[in-house]
From TrEMBL, chains A, C:
<feature type="domain" description="Acyl-CoA dehydrogenase/oxidase N-terminal">
    <location>
        <begin position="5"/>
        <end position="126"/>
    </location>
</feature>
<dbReference type="InterPro" id="IPR013786">
    <property type="entry name" value="AcylCoA_DH/ox_N"/>
</dbReference>
<protein>
    <submittedName>
        <fullName>Acyl-CoA dehydrogenase</fullName>
    </submittedName>
</protein>
<dbReference type="InterPro" id="IPR037069">
    <property type="entry name" value="AcylCoA_DH/ox_N_sf"/>
</dbReference>
<dbReference type="InterPro" id="IPR052161">
    <property type="entry name" value="Mycobact_Acyl-CoA_DH"/>
</dbReference>
<dbReference type="GO" id="GO:0050660">
    <property type="term" value="F:flavin adenine dinucleotide binding"/>
</dbReference>
<keyword id="KW-0285">Flavoprotein</keyword>
<keyword id="KW-0274">FAD</keyword>
<feature type="domain" description="Acyl-CoA dehydrogenase/oxidase C-terminal">
    <location>
        <begin position="235"/>
        <end position="381"/>
    </location>
</feature>
Automatic annotation (TrEMBL), chains B, D:
<dbReference type="InterPro" id="IPR009075">
    <property type="entry name" value="AcylCo_DH/oxidase_C"/>
</dbReference>
<dbReference type="InterPro" id="IPR013786">
    <property type="entry name" value="AcylCoA_DH/ox_N"/>
</dbReference>
<dbReference type="InterPro" id="IPR009100">
    <property type="entry name" value="AcylCoA_DH/oxidase_NM_dom_sf"/>
</dbReference>
<dbReference type="InterPro" id="IPR046373">
    <property type="entry name" value="Acyl-CoA_Oxase/DH_mid-dom_sf"/>
</dbReference>
<comment type="similarity">
    <text>Belongs to the acyl-CoA dehydrogenase family.</text>
</comment>
<dbReference type="GO" id="GO:0003995">
    <property type="term" value="F:acyl-CoA dehydrogenase activity"/>
</dbReference>
<keyword id="KW-0285">Flavoprotein</keyword>
<dbReference type="InterPro" id="IPR006091">
    <property type="entry name" value="Acyl-CoA_Oxase/DH_mid-dom"/>
</dbReference>
<dbReference type="InterPro" id="IPR037069">
    <property type="entry name" value="AcylCoA_DH/ox_N_sf"/>
</dbReference>
Length: 386, 379, 386, 379
């Protein structure tokens, strides 16, 4: 028996013993996701138990080093962990922007002290993070941001406004891009961390066309941020942000797995499919979706061994999000009048139409399709000009 | 006939454009009635104003007190309704309902048209029985019972159904579900016993109901036109609804396009107006082209319908499919070009996207009508 | 009986008597088109007779004034002429760039002497014209052309090279854009006319991907052009060219009539149509084609009364040519292996594949689709920037 | 298995890439043989070089003297063939023909494989009987006659048919035209009496023939595999041909893309490189994305085929449809972005457009394979 086989047996046994039955049910909606944080209301005891048991073993962040709250798994071991979880349908014990975004940035750019402090909090689900990047005047053109941190010796005083801060009204801390040098566009931005309960921080949810409000406007009015709450060097926050955007784009593109881009023709046809031309569009979509799934697999395989072009996530995000929008246009057509319902039991609270509207953000958030195409043109195709 | 408005039509367009912008605008109507969770989904006061303008009876015969106008004129109103996203029962009442009643007796017209013309009544049309438009199949049954009929069955996606004073129902009086013959149209009064509504809000904030008819007893007076011979009249009503929805779609597409191009001329990113980016310019120009072409198809179909041309049926399907495609492109490009703010309820572009979806589905989507184009063309 | 009814009766009677039976057959290929000119070989006696009889009455250019070789018809009369010709299927008696392009330019910009001289030659089919606009370095960016006419007092000496000169090897004269002022980009171009037999003019056919060579490279080596052979003012040839490009775009877009954009599903289906998804694409194409035909009608109706936006032909050309390319892609798919034949009797000399390849030029010649979109964005939508 | 080449495969790719660029380039092969109006449509000398490289028998079993490689490896060769538009009988001979013969007897393999491996022989495959790919319908008949069969019927679009030393023919030995069973494959020698060719040049300068079999007497030795049970073997041959054509298409698409992006970086208009125009940049980036995705689908399908996976059949159709769509976009954008010169025979981009068309049609176009995706998915 190889080491990995032994490892697999160990994981399998641990999961069998520790993963509550309720946590082996598929995630049905947002309410089933465990986000952690100071104010998080666990849906049930099982959700809390599952998170805590995993956190105790470092399994909430299996491939992070042990001193930072992880289990220190190798890539091969982490893959086994994922496979064994998938085998029994175990839900992720903890989801958070801390795990997906801030964590990787801290691992690369943080001081040892920061890593020990913040990463352990994230791993244990104690602190929920949100991201402060976009501003009303700085969407695609992120680097033109205006939120300013004035140097006051041992701290900054931050003033300004962020927008599209996901779940800012539920988060405990924020990682935030703040201008610390007005003279330098790119090299005048710093990556700061601070508590959302700091005096001067207020949030206001933004109502979306889907009827939901997952995003906020966030206002900073003389917010005091101590100097040790910076990640990376002063004025070099753009490096951290760029690194992080890569992660975000992979996540949004669904390249990291996720099954929302599955073929849909067969699913739709179960409810009857009488329109031959709609059927044709579904078949052409399925061709594209099944091919894109291969691309997702290829990209991950190549990324693992460092063969993928560093700008390839931009292509993946572009293609994946455009495809997902098309998928939901087709689902709306297939659903007909029923899918138009905005609120009803039959449609699970207007779920088809709300999901459809939600997908329209896919090609805007985390870098618009237009920005993705710009990046591909410039960095992969090396076309001339801006 | 040239493919543009006559002088009279241009005058009508001018007055309707001003009226709808002033009275039917998004803030005053759509947002207002949506935010107060109005169970009609539209405002009766505006409907009364429609009547004062003479619009509610514009398609009714002069003998019935109407203006005896045609689909070109109705399309002028619908385009402005679309451009302003004005919630209104105009299409189901004054276009489809009035077209149906025109095939009915003097008594029937006398019973319903005055209320419509006064802006006091609203009509709805009930054809489909499932989530997709499929008028070729009608299972809802009306059996002879005494001097009248007994209606049994259900209808889906009846826009303004619960608000309507009468629902025009296509029911089967003989034959089997997919027979062409054996259809009869009825004007079912709101208060008929056995009619129940599941009233649902749609994505565009309009209300539609799934209507159940449980042993609804109807007088012979409720029959519109001939018993068993209602298919031809039903087709007239459908054509009116389809070209009407197409006209409204061109208005929605144009409205979305207008606010989007305005946004392109004001929003800055990377130190320049986003409308300066050539990639967006080309997409906007392509979209312009699609909208122009759709509008041309719509006016052509309207003229053919008004002229009772044999080609009208084909061109109505071309127009509905093309308008749906062009308008869908317009709202998708609109939201994307607005970027983040396009996703917020605060901006209007998302409302256009919602209305587009609802109208595209109404009376057959692009798939249904492209299929019809193929079949009418003999393949 | 109104005047127009009388006119119609007259035309009908004349056509009945004068249009030879052979000239009432549909035009099958290029060889059936009567181009006129010094070296034109009439396909048969009927073709010659038909052209000459029409020319004698001014019917080759019915709406040109009588002194210039036309019949002086009003728009309403010209429409009757077209309708009556269509009624019996009469072929156009004469086709030429002289009629379509140079003629309208001369009518607007020419001197009285030029009109009398050149227009009569065109109307009688005596002189065949070609167009010298594009140069190897100046395609879409026409105004950067380099062919130079040096002022020698009573004449210019022209040196340079043109490309894409249609049928230059068959033409008698050329109308040509020549730089006459190197200091002024737009206002340094003149519109010159000269004989292709002038010493120093040589042509070389360009072989196209369709296997045909309708275009030439044309070289000018010290070509002497007398000063009276200029149309419009010195250095204002760009005004003439722009005016002419509008005509060309209308022509290429098929807005001027022509039936190549007809719906095709029914035609294809006659040979069997077993692929449901191809059928769906054909139906969607037919929707677009039938709608575009309405647009063509609307555009002409509006243009007639001066309601059309002056830049609308650019939109028409863009949409029409893109549609025509799509049409031929579908025809190739419908034809399958048979359509792939490059030379065979069954396919009329490889006609499907050659026509398909020919359509690829539609969105390039007379202004590329990209230039059309630029013009629409700028002049109709009034978007900012270049 | 990761979705990229193993070390061995990468080594193969490197040597094939160099070889094909040096020896199989457009000027040396395609233009040369086209301009001399070669009736084979390809050069035998290059075919001999393929053999020296070990490529002609790469899919044959080691026991037969082959390299026992798989579809991933064959795809490497085909992608380079596509990129260089190299005219070659590799796909019909070494991929489809060898796959067919692998299902035949020792005698049959011994008769044909040595010639293939030596680069002396060429094979063709005859399946379709009309202008569109329709292997579900086989009417060409082979009736028992003495110790063998008598072949009667015709086959269309047999690429390299007239040049082939043997044609693999799918014929009906029992049942009716659209039956799944009752198919038998035959290896029909070039010199069999009663075989006649109408040899046609295709748009991409390859030669294909419409073959007529008029009472062609065949030994029992000519049968490949089981009589009446040839459908499974035929499907193997089709899958090999489809994924092979898909791989070649990705090469054609990539080749067209490469020369187009180069052109974008060198051609100037309006005082700047045309590659600086954002509208073209976005279209190029979108095209890049489509080509990458098509390539991923192709390698996935190759691996599934090589692993005898049940999912292979579906993914082969996905790959063929996607590769055809992406490659078609690549050649269309290529010609358009080249502008006028793209229309000339002098530039290579038009040659890519022609090859794309021919390959897209070969073994089923995007419509056929999308339909198959729907059917295999159960709708």
């Amino acid at each position: 028996m190889s080491d990995l086989d032994a490892f697999r047996a160990e994981i399998r046994a641990w999961l069998e013993e520790n993963c509550p039955a309720e946590m082996r049910e598929p995630v049905r909606d947002e309410g089933d996701v465990c986000w952690g944080g100071r104010n998080f209301k666990f849906k049930n005891e099982a959700q809390k138990t599952w998170m805590e048991r995993c956190a105790a073993k470092g399994y909430t962040v299996p491939d992070w080093p042990k001193p930072y709250g992880g289990a220190g798994m190798s890539p091969a071991e982490a893959k086994i962990w994922r496979e064994e979880c998938a085998r029994i349908g175990a839900r992720p014990p903890l989801s958070s922007f801390g795990i997906w975004m801030l964590g990787p940035a801290l691992l690369k750019f943080g001081t040892e002290e920061q890593k020990v402090h913040y990463l352990n909090q994230i791993a244990r689900g104690e602190i929920r993070w949100c991201q402060g990047y976009s501003e009303p005047g700085s969407g695609s053109d992120l680097v033109s941001l205006q939120t300013f941190g004035e140097d006051k010796g041992d701290h900054w005083v931050v003033n300004g406004q962020k927008i599209w801060t996901s779940y800012a009204d539920k988060a405990d801390w924020i990682f935030c891009l703040v201008r610390t040098d007005k003279a330098n566009k790119y090299q005048g931005i710093s990556f700061l961390l601070f508590d959302m309960t700091t005096p001067g921080v207020t949030t206001k949810p933004i109502k979306l066309i889907s009827g939901n409000s997952p995003f906020c406007e966030t206002f900073f009015d003389n917010v005091v941020v101590p100097k040790n709450q910076i990640v990376g060097e002063l004025n070099r926050g753009w490096d951290v942000a760029k690194y992080l955007l890569g992660h975000e784009r992979e996540m949004i593109s669904g390249a990291g797995g996720g099954d929302r881009l599955n073929a849909i023709g067969a699913i739709v046809a179960r409810n009857g499919l009488e329109d031959p031309i709609l059927r044709a569009d579904l078949a052409m979509f399925d061709v594209d979706a099944l091919a894109y799934a291969c691309m997702g697999e290829k990209f991950l395989d190549e990324a693992k061994v460092g063969r993928a072009h560093p700008a390839q996530p931009n292509m993946m995000k572009y293609a994946g999000t455009e495809l997902n929008k098309r998928r939901h246009e087709l689902l709306m057509s297939a659903g007909g009048a029923t899918a138009l319902e905005w609120e009803s039991e039959r449609t699970n609270g207007g779920s088809p139409s709300r999901s459809w509207l939600r997908t329209k953000a896919n090609s805007i958030e985390g870098g618009t399709s237009e920005v993705m195409l710009n990046v591909v043109a410039k960095r992969i195709l090396e076309l001339p000009g801006a | 006939m040239p493919l543009f408005h006559t002088e009279d039509q241009a005058m009508l367009a001018e007055s309707v454009t001003g009226f709808m912008a002033d009275e039917g605008g998004i803030k005053k109507q759509l947002r207002h009635y949506r935010d107060m969770n109005c169970q009609d989904g539209f405002g009766h006061a505006l409907w009364k104003q429609f009547a004062e303008m003479g619009l509610t009876g514009m398609l009714a015969a002069e003998a019935d007190g109407g203006l005896a106008m045609g689909h070109v004129e109705a399309g002028i109103v619908l385009r402005e309704i679309g451009r302003n996203l004005t919630p209104s029962p105009f299409l189901t009442t004054s276009v489809m309902g009035v077209t149906a009643l025109a095939g009915g007796s003097d008594e029937l017209r006398g019973r319903w048209l005055p209320g419509v013309m006064a802006g006091d009544s609203v009509l709805a049309v009930a054809v489909d029985e499932g989530p997709k438009h499929r008028p070729e199949r009608i299972a809802c049954k009306a059996e002879k019972a005494g001097n009248g009929f007994r209606l049994q069955g259900s209808k889906a996606f009846v826009v303004h159904g619960a608000s309507a004073d009468a629902i025009i129902v296509a029911a089967r009086t003989s034959g089997s579900d997919t027979d062409n013959d054996g259809i009869t149209l009825f004007a079912v009064p709101k208060d008929a016993s056995g009619v129940s509504h599941e009233n649902l809000r749609l994505v565009d904030s309009a209300m539609a109901s799934n209507v159940t008819f449980d042993s609804v007893e109807l007088d012979g007076d409720c029959v519109i036109g001939e018993v068993d011979g209602g298919r031809e009249l039903l087709n007239k009503v459908l054509r009116a609804g389809r070209i009407g929805a197409a006209a409204e779609l061109t208005g929605v597409g144009q409205g979305a396009f207008d606010i989007t191009t305005t946004y392109l001329k004001t929003r800055k990113q990377f130190g320049q107006l986003i409308g300066e980016f050539q990639a967006l310019q080309h997409r906007a120009a392509h979209l312009y082209s699609e909208l122009e072409i759709a509008e041309a198809a719509v006016i052509k179909a309207q003229q053919l319908l008004d002229g009772n041309s044999e080609k009208a049926d084909l061109m109505v399907s071309v127009a509905k499919a093309k308008a749906a495609k062009a308008c869908n492109l317009s709202v998708r490009e609109g939201v994307q070009m607005h970027g983040g703010v396009g996703m917020t309820d605060e901006y209007d572009i998302g409302l256009y996207m919602k209305r587009d979806r609802s109208l595209a589905e109404f009376m057959g989507d692009q798939y249904y009508h492209a299929e019809r184009v193929a079949q009418l063309s003999g393949y």
